[in-house]
Amino acid sequence: MRKKLQKLIFASFTFAICFGVSAQQTASEIDAKVDHMLKRMTLEEKVDYISGMRIGGHGPNKWDGTKENKRLGIEPIKIYHGPYGIGALRYAKKNGTYYPSSINMACTWNPELVQEVATSMGKELKAAGGQSNAGPAMNIIRDLRGGRSMEYFTEDPYLNGQIAAAYVKGIQSPGNFAIMKHFICNNQERERNYIDVNVGERALREIYLPGYKQAVIDGGVLGVMTGYNTVNSSHSSANKHLIQDILKDEWGFKGIVMTDWSGSDDDAVQMLNAGLDLEMPRPKTLTSANVLKALKQGEISEAEIDEKVRRILYVSYFTGVMDAKPEIRPEEMTTPETIELSRKMAEEAIVLLKNEDDILPLDRDKVKSIAVIGPNGEFGAHFRNGQKSYQLLQGGGSASISPQQGRMITPFAGIKNASRGIEVTFEPGCYGDHGCTTIQPEFFTTTDNKPGLEAKYYANSNLNGKPNVKIDKNIRFFWQKTPEIIEQGNDKQNGSEDGFSVEWTGKLKAPISRKYTFEVEAQGLTKVFIDGKLVLDKYKPDVGWDRYAMGSAYLEQGNHDIKIEFRKSAARNQLHLMWDYGNDVYLDKAIELAKKSDVVIMPVGTSGSLEREAVDRDEKLNRSESLALSAAQERLIKEVSRVNKNVVVVTFTAGVVCEQWKNNVSAILYAGFPGQEGGNALASILFGDVNPSAKLTVSIPKSVSQFPDKWYSNKETISYDEGIYVGYRFFDEYKKEPAFPFGHGLSYSQFNYGKPNLSAKAKIGEVVKLKVPLSNIGTIAGKEVVQVYVQDKKSSEPRPLKELKAFKKVQLAPNETKVIDIELAPESFSFFSENENKWITEAGEFEIWIGSSSADIRQKVKLELVK
Q1: C-alpha distances out from residue 421 to 277, 366, 425, 603, Å
Q2: Residue 180: CB partners within 8 Å, gap ≥ 6?
Q3: By CB atoms within 10 Å of each CB, which of 231, 268, 358, 736 scores lowest?
């Protein structure tokens, strides 16, 4: 039976709500209103209330959120999407500001700025008529290949909690509720719907749970979304240990626990008993029939249903929708002030990774011409056939925010805006994303020398029987409606296992002798054979977002036999065959431009096609190095750097392996996905109008081969055998050197760390106070992030070499010195013992490491903890 099922569960609410009265008075008033409403609801109404509203698609008067009850005047909670912006186009006919992505927010290492931005987002959410933006997304970035890494904050649990709590306070301050997600261990996207994560209790407590805990305890978060995955053989939405025992009972969480969208367990009783409150976005498992049956059979009590309804009602009153119908005010969304704030955060979120010979900042008096070369530099035919898609500089999936037309500032546009008379010219250099484009009809011929390929369409998915034969000019199809092709036949066949299949055969003309990269964008199963050899195998039947596979082959100039197979796997079917040949012309133009330019800025990376929800950057679908740039982009960097020594590469991605070209260029900037003002912010950094101060929140490996094979799974299970050794803890434990370490980030200033002041002894349970003298010995003002790591010199159980336990961002003028006060909480010295099932702090010797990154430790000081 649950603890405190009735209104006492909310008596300790201390959240500040902008209703003009004290938080405690407001909590009491809300409790009274909830009590009154709960007494008026019938059992059937209560049961109906614990599942979401959206029965069908996104049509008129349909939303993601709770149901309304017209009889009782219960207004719905509306949940929009976008952890780094308010996706309200469907509801308010306007989106909020596209702020820098979540990983960029964390790269600021500035919780105060994060809270300021989140507060601004919260105001835009109010103006859009919504009550939540389904954020923050805050899973630990265990593996950068995870497609939602850009949606998450960091690999470190302490930093995760600091940023998350600040975000929650900001979003909720105008009277919204934050939804932290995805609870928990949703660390990869492919296979997410059924993968079972086997993880030890210590790893849960020390790595994956602390950020959520801080968002509850310090942030006062009112929403939690479970994941699609299973944890230790119990589905996230039905995991009693995580939801009821830890989140609710141990941490005292007071808000709503909801499923991810259609991410429910199939056992209603198990979900209800585990502590789940709300199934989203519609009743799938928690149907009225299922819940009423469980009540009748005594598998759950009405008091437990009341608790769930009480939580939802409390949040409804908290957000104000029960007292006043939300008013949509689009004029308060994406204002000059919010756009300027987006730029401010982007300027503080771009990380300077390398700056050889101080090539940056650029001197406007000396630089006469700048070449912006790279597929992420500007819109054009090299990206999505010329669409001005905001996803050129943003990750994809449910988090995406499309800015107003013309308000996405590209690197080329931003540099031109700040150039002050310097000549700025753009060339893409290659196609975007994987560097491939459609194979044009002139490169295909049938076996009897007719243009195109011979196509055999079969009325089944097995490539057998009597086909319908025709000639197709190229391979670019999207089959959606019936009978779009005769073999789909009828509505029954559309989406059924009968399906259809196609085989294309003929000749492919290689214009020159070289290695060719091939790519398919496919919804369906696809194989490509050249000269009888399997070159590409899109063996996964995924549809929707997970569509890409690649392969390569060396081809001599001339004709080669080609065979392409496609098998239907869902109602919607797509096949688009591409190659990288078209990059040669782009490359030649880029080289010529680079030769005559003083400096080359190279914006490269991925986009919302490749880094997004439901897709991972893993190499299992024929990608040899999944965190690397495309072969075309790597080739572009190498060739351009041969003709111009002043090359600055800017990466737009959550993380990129750069060992193949890192030493060829003078400077590297990590831009992540920096929001709609990203181009202007980049220019501010390049010209020195802003001194970079961001730090990496992840360790960037030299290669994915540095990770154990078992870190990623294409199967139904994965074991986190590394335990607590995640991120920099892993690199430390196994003595591996990353390309760029956690916490790394350069400045145009130089900072000197003086000798820290710390008492030699402290009692267990006391706050440890540390003073660190910090000096700016450079010639310009700058900000430094003082990072404090703790090392346990001798422990009864294995511990990481060091763990981040405090940090502070400090601004200093040239030649200025400040003494930085830092506090280490008592839990900074603890570990979780699985044997005793509790946190333990042992007396003994510790060492406090203070530095500019996890690998750049400037000072160490010893501390003895005593009982």
Answers
A1: 60, 12, 12, 21
A2: 135, 136, 138, 164, 168, 212, 215, 221, 223, 224, 225
A3: 358
**Residue 275: helix, strand or coil by DSSP?**
coil
Task: List Cα–Cα distances, 157 to 516, 744, 801, in angstroms.
Answer: 43, 17, 15
Distance of CA 861 to the CA centre of its chain: 36
What is the rounded distance in angstroms from the CA atom of residue 330 to the CA atom of residue 95?
8
The confidence score (pLDDT) of residue 626 equals 87
* Pairing of the two strands 761-763 and 857-866: parallel
Comparing CA positions, the residue from 245, 608, 650, 246 lying closest to residue 398 is 608
Predicted structure pTM score: 0.95
Gap between the Cα atoms of 174 and 315, Å rounded: 13
Chain center to CA of 101: 7
Domains in the chain (CATH in brackets) are 7-324 (3.20.20.300), 338-432+590-733 (3.40.50.1700), 437-579 (2.60.120.380), 751-866 (2.60.40.10)
One-character DSSP codes across 469-502: EEEESSSEEEE-STTSSGGG-STTTTTSSS--EE
d(CA 46, CA 371): 63
The token duo for 3 is 């603890």
Between CA 205 and CA 834 the distance in angstroms is 10
Q: Which has the closest alpha carbon to 306: 34, 26, 28, 14?
A: 34
- The mean pLDDT value for 593-616 works out to 95
Cα–Cα nearest to 229, from 257, 189, 267, 266: 189
- Cα separations in angstroms, 816 against 645, 692, 813: 35, 18, 5
Place of tokens 């740039």: 629
CA distance 615 to 499: 25
d(CA 464, CA 503): 10
* Mean pLDDT, residues 390-400 taken together: 93
716 phi/psi in degrees, rounded to 5: -85, -5
d(CA 844, CA 831): 14
pLDDT, tens only, 355-379: 999 999 999 999 999 999 999 999 9
Which amino acid makes up residue 819? V
Q: How far apart are alpha carbons 37 and 60 in whole angstroms?
A: 28
- Token pair, residue 731, equals 């690199």
* Strands 558-567 and 838-840, bridge-based pairing: unpaired
State how far the Cα of 525 lies from the Cα of 539, in Å rounded to an integer.
Answer: 6
Other CB atoms within 10 A of residue 366 CB: 9
